Amino acid sequence: MRAKLFxxxxxxxxxxxxxxxxxxxLYAARAPRGHLxxxxxxxxxxxxxxxLLISRSFSARVERxxxxxxxxxxxxxxxxxxxDTDDELTDLGxxxxxxxxxxxxxxRTLTDExxxxxxxxxxxxxxxxxxxxxxxxxxxxxxxxxxxxxDAAGSEDRPLLEVVRQADLVALAxxxxxxxxxxxxxxxxxxxxxxxxxxxxxxxxxxDAEASLRAPGIESASGGxxxxxxxxxxxxxxxxxxLRRLERVRQDxxxxxxxxxxxxxxxxxxxxxxxxxxxxxxxxxxRRFLEIIRDHAVRLGRLTDDLLKLARIEAGKLELEFQRxxxxxxxxxxxxTTLLRASRRELSLDVNFPPALPPVRGDASLLREVLQNxxxxxxxxxxxxxxxxxxxxxxxxxxxxxxxxxxxxxxLAEKERIFERFYRVDAARSREVGxxxxxxxxxxxxxxxxxxxxxxxxxxxxxxxxxxxxxxxT
Length: 474
Ligand code: ADP
Hints:
Elements: H1 4-28, H2 33-73, H3 88-123, E1 127-131, E2 137-140, H4 142-147, H5 160-164, H6 167-179, E3 183-189, E4 195-205, H7 209-214, E5 231-239, H8 241-276, H9 286-314, E6 323-325, H10 327-344, E7 348-352, E8 360-362, H11 364-380, E9 387-395, E10 398-405, H12 427-432, H13 439-449, E11 454-458, E12 464-471
Parallel strand pairs: 7-9
Antiparallel strand pairs: 1-2, 1-5, 3-4, 4-5, 6-8, 9-10, 10-12, 11-12
The structure holds adenosine-5'-diphosphate.
Adenosine-5'-diphosphate is lined by residues 373, 377-378, 381, 405, 407-408, 410, 418, 424-426, 430, 435-441, 464.
């Protein structure tokens, strides 16, 4: 073991001892009294000066080390400049430099970690808040503040209830704190357009810094966690409004489908029973009853076809065979099909499009289906004597096809909703004319799958103009 400092100190004491011995020796030599005193004084002074010089150098070096330790404590990790001397104090300085460098590295890692965590928390769409054992907010991210309309910075260190004013949320957090287990629940915010949130509150041990320093590996005598380790909880809010909306849509859909099936099935059952209980022999009515049964069965078939088509489209299984489609051919074939139906209802049909209509990019049979549906609707919802006009134009990079009628029209408030499945302005009238309430919904899906749009201009009693656009073939 090196002990240079020990030798230096020993040398100083030895020097002092020699000076004293020399002074004593002079005294023993019985030199003249005056000489004796001067010589003794000179020797003691010399010894004193040398001792002072050596001890001052030590205390200056110790002071530098003390200052360095203070600098490190204050967060300045610049290394200490070491002296050339090679003794224990220099070793101590070197060790302190190493400790400071290691400390700087650890602090850098922790800062990086903290920055990364806060960047993640900031960018999360989920609202996150942390509370301590006394239900005071320790932290909340921007999303949490926005969801609950609170000021993120101003909510720290305030009671959760005071910050969020949501008793249900606070109750959930309290249950997590008290039980020490994950707690889940739902929260509905807002009244005009309510939003649904899923809430998870999870306990986190040792939230306060002091406790967290004590906590790792520290257990009570009973072997369990120490009771004085304070708990906190983390609360996470995630928006489940879309999920809830889809659940509602699904429930509505099931209810609608059941309703649509019930009417024809009841009629079929009723007339079949009437026939079986004697009407079969009633020659005046039996044929009529059978026709009613057939009509309802046809309606059920149509409904099933439309539902299957819609299911295929919505499941993304609609296979479009894109090709260059001459829109004029589709217009002409649909017009021919409609002409007979229109004339039966005393409606006139005008077809109007420029001679050189450029081809569009699409699936011919699906586009025909869209146009036929719009024409069928125009026939069904226009009173006898009315007029239907079928036209097409090109604008920029798309072709726009329009079916206009002079029929009953659509109220402004329902213009968007008629494209929803099963939505009808007048359900009884739609059923009467054999409608399923799914035609426009299917048409919208098809047009959008082509990259186009479908919309309507209409006013009650003044007819409707349905338009759809399809991108031109390039
Ligand atoms: P439906 O089978 O009932 O016709 P659609 O989806 O094709 O179903 O149409 C939905 C609803 O939109 C119809 O029930 C009707 O109320 C309204 N509608 C559609 N086309 C017209 C039109 N040309 N004139 C007036 N109302 C229309």
